[in-house]
Design a protein that fits this description.
- It is built from 26 helices and no strands.
- By secondary structure, it is mostly helical.
- It is globular.
- 49% of the residues are buried.
């Protein structure tokens, strides 16, 4: 799995009901006759009330005819949207649509798809530089915990959510304007601008998620409607992005896509500034830093801050020492050891164990997309007889097929795997992941050509089909397990913390993967005994190209190392069904440090 290797994941994903009690005391709202700044008066008259029953879904009549079947998708969609707006209000529907259709769906998907063509055609940099640039730019996803703590603890301009979204949107819009207009030639400078865009997406996603989780808590019977709407918007946005990114990248400078993204970045400002998020202004006595939150959860708050410092430090090292891949790797590994130790000391035991497993699963699947992506799209001069995929195929066609098979993966999971234990799900998924990666090995070694199967056919029905389904197999139990372990009263911030920690696992995977493609062969000869295993080094993605040892690199990074996560499942993952209760005691599970000090957290 190459161009779909990503380092930004979101464990606090739509689809899992989380409390927003971590947001601190709820403001009583404006005084009678007073309208808070940025909060639309008519929306104040539309509060979400009670635990009302959700309306019935649209069903076909008993005597349904051809016209009824033909119009079913339209009527069903109309019924669904009517139920959503009735329960949550049309203003909040606009806020969520803009966020998950335009910002997270369209904008984030375009950024992920355009990176390869932007590196090769616009910046003209090699694979290692491209991958380093993406590590830097994705840093905001590793600091989501700190963003959540900051928003919880300090209402900026009187608001816990809206003000942070607006500030991040301005920063992201400035970054996109710079990418679209400035003659950017430095990968480090491009990474800083992309960092600002990801900061907008990560911040807006986290805080909108916190708000809709709060509404789902107040109307739990409508939770499935909210979940379906959010993910539907995201999937539609992703599909739209896939349809045009490839053709545009093939025929124009990919830089033109940043002009398309600029109005999308600005779009979130409009509904948020109009108060459509329904983020109430805190009362004057609640303004300032919420010290009670910090005193109540000191370890979790401190862990979020340390993780943010570590992640930003990693980005700074990558920027100022752009070519020093060895020291980048050393820093990332050292920080991951520190964070893992602190997680076991400061987080509840079972939560720390499961989180460490998912962190290590990310690290062990080394991200070598800088080498793989460039090989699949290299021209005849660079890789004679290679696939030479164009961006329309590599970004558009495979992404459309991947979106479809991802949904198939969800159906398979729900119907055949949902009754398995967590432990079985994780080790089986690891094996399937390695099998999916083996299809890349077959293409790289040109075995499919020897079998008479063209590259596009083999890739489309190999990695493009299996990969997204396997990713869903891994993603869904991870989210369910995490939702059963988070401390009560701090659900939203803990979700953000765990997502950030696992995203940092992706950072470590990238840093090791970048160094693995660049490490001198002579150094490995002096360290390893088996000569054939040392020949995977020295990949060059620019003329004169050298991909002679890429197959060894893929085999070790994607087929061998991930298998080491299997024994960890039997040590760190509970052998319980997804429907079982993980923590038997109703009280919050104590941390190892609290246990050593003889304290209990209840």
């Amino acid at each position: 799995m190459s161009h779909r290797d990503v380092i930004s994941v979101d464990i606090a994903a739509p689809g899992h009901r989380v409390s927003d009690r971590a947001r601190g005391p709820v403001s009583p709202g404006p005084r009678p006759g007073q309208v808070s700044p940025g909060y639309h008066e008519s929306y104040i008259e539309e509060p979400v009330k009670g635990d009302e029953d959700d309306d019935d879904e649209y069903v076909l009549p008993d005597d349904a005819g051809f016209t009824d079947y033909l119009l079913y998708p339209l009527r069903s969609g109309e019924n669904f949207f009517a139920r959503f707006t009735k329960n949550f209000g049309w203003r909040f529907a606009i806020q969520i649509t803009v966020m998950y259709l335009l910002v997270k769906g369209l904008m984030m998907s375009v950024l992920g798809l355009v990176k390869l063509s932007y590196c090769k055609k616009t910046l003209k940099i090699d694979g290692s530089a491209c991958q380093t640039m993406m590590v830097i730019s994705s840093t905001p996803w590793a600091i989501k915990g700190a963003i959540g703590v900051l928003a919880d603890a300090y209402p900026l301009f009187g608001y816990h959510k809206s003000s942070y979204i607006l500030v991040s949107a301005v920063i992201g819009s400035i970054g996109l304007f710079g990418l679209a207009t400035f003659p950017v030639t430095s990968a480090a400078f491009a990474a800083i601008l992309l960092f600002s865009v990801n900061l907008e997406i990560a911040t807006s996603d986290l805080l909108c998620e916190g708000k809709y989780a709060e509404l789902m808590q107040s109307k739990p019977k409508t939770g499935s409607t909210m979940v379906s709407y959010v993910w539907g918007c995201f999937q539609i946005g992703s599909l739209i992005a896939a349809m045009f990114v490839g053709p545009v990248a093939d025929h124009y400078d990919p830089k033109v896509l940043f002009w398309i993204l600029l109005p999308l970045a600005v779009s979130i400002i409009v509904p948020t500034s109009l108060g459509y998020l329904a983020d109430e202004r805190v009362s004057p006595e609640k303004e300032g830093i919420d010290m009670e939150l910090i005193k109540t959860y000191p370890y979790i708050v401190l862990f979020c801050v340390i993780m943010a410092v570590v992640a930003v430090g990693n980005a700074a090292i990558d920027i100022f020492f752009f070519e020093e891949h060895f020291w980048q790797m050393v820093y990332a590994i050292s920080c991951s050891v520190l964070l893992s130790i602190l997680a076991f000391l400061w987080l509840p035991r079972q939560l720390a164990m499961c989180n460490f497993y998912m962190f290590m699963a990310s690290v062990l699947y080394l991200n070598i997309s800088g080498a793989q992506d460039f090989w699949f799209t290299a021209d005849e001069q660079c890789v004679p007889g290679g696939p030479a995929f164009d961006y329309t195929y590599y970004n558009t066609y495979t992404s459309i097929v991947g979106a479809f098979t991802g949904w198939v993966g969800v159906l398979i999971f729900q119907n055949f795997m949902s009754g398995w234990t967590f432990r079985t799900l994780f080790w089986v998924t690891t094996i399937l992941q390695c099998i999916a990666s083996a299809s890349d090995l077959i293409i790289i070694n040109r075995l499919n050509i020897a079998w008479g199967i063209p590259d596009k056919w083999f890739y489309m029905f190999g990695d493009a089909v299996i990969g997204p389904a396997v990713m869903m197999f891994a993603f869904m139990p991870a989210v369910v397990l995490t939702s059963k372990l988070v401390p009560k009263g701090l659900e939203s911030t803990t979700y953000a913390l765990l997502a950030g920690f696992q995203n940092f696992g992706g950072v470590v995977s990238n840093q090791i993967g970048i160094y693995a493609t660049q490490v001198p062969t002579s150094l490995l000869h002096s360290l390893l005994v088996i000569d054939t295993c040392t020949q995977y080094a020295g990949v060059k993605t620019e003329a004169p190209c050298n991909f002679d040892n890429l197959s060894w690199l893929v085999g070790i990074s994607h087929c061998l190392l991930p298998l080491f996560a299997i024994p960890l499942t039997f040590i760190l993952i509970p052998n319980k069904l997804m429907t079982d209760k993980i923590i038997e005691d109703e009280a919050t599970e104590p941390t190892l440090l609290q246990g050593a000090l003889g304290q209990d957290e209840g």
